[in-house]
């Protein structure tokens, strides 16, 4: 497992977990600058808190996370808007619970000590 963070235009941080070795390596290539195309984060939200992602009442299901270059508009939302409208998510707003924040920018990999505190 590895944990990464991204920000959106608000500058707030969102932490997600990756379990798939291929995705972990992909995230590391994005952070190193080796990958410059598919750099935005997408996945299916789960409407519950995750200890590693404080401050948010939802998290991304690790088994659904991918990275993208462009995506359809219907899955785009800021972190704040999603948090404020979480009760409406997974219907007409973010159908299928898929979230693809267009302004997402991978910023860092978290250390074990950051996760276990």
Textual characterization of the structure:
InterPro entries: BP74_N (IPR056422), cAMP-inducible_BP74-like (IPR053344). It comes from Nocardia terrae. This is Calmodulin. It holds the Pfam family BP74_N. Residues 2-111 form the BP74 N-terminal domain. With 117 residues, the protein is an alpha+beta fold. It has one domain. 19% of the residues lie in helices and 26% in strands. It is built from 3 helices and 7 strands. Strands 3, 4, 5 and 6 form a 4-stranded antiparallel beta sheet that branches. A 3-stranded antiparallel beta sheet has the order 2-1-7, covered by helices on one side. Strand 1 (2-7) and strand 2 form a beta hairpin. The radius of gyration is 13 Å and the shape is globular. The two termini are 16 Å apart.
Q: Report the radius of gyration as a whole number of Å.
A: 13 Å
Tally the beta strands: 7
Structural class: alpha+beta
Which descriptor suits the 3D outline? Answer: globular
Give the terminus-to-terminus CA distance.
16 Å
- Succession of helices and strands: EEHEEEHEEH
Question: How many discrete structural domains?
Answer: 1
Classify the beta-strand content into a percent band. Answer: 25-35%
Low-confidence stretches: none
Largest sheet: 4 strands, antiparallel
Mean pLDDT: 93
* Helical content class: 10-25%
- Helical segment tally? 3
């Amino acid at each position: 497992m590895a944990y990464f963070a991204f920000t959106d235009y608000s500058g707030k941080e969102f932490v997600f977990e990756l379990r798939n070795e291929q995705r972990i390596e992909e995230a590391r290539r994005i952070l190193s600058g080796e990958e410059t195309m598919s750099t935005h984060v997408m996945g299916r939200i789960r409407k519950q808190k995750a200890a590693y992602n404080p401050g948010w009442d939802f998290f991304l299901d690790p088994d659904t996370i991918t990275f993208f270059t462009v995506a359809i508009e219907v899955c785009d939302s800021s972190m704040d808007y999603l948090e404020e409208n979480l009760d409406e998510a997974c219907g007409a707003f973010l159908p299928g619970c898929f979230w693809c924040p267009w302004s997402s920018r991978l910023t860092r990999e978290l250390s074990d000590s950051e996760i276990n505190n």
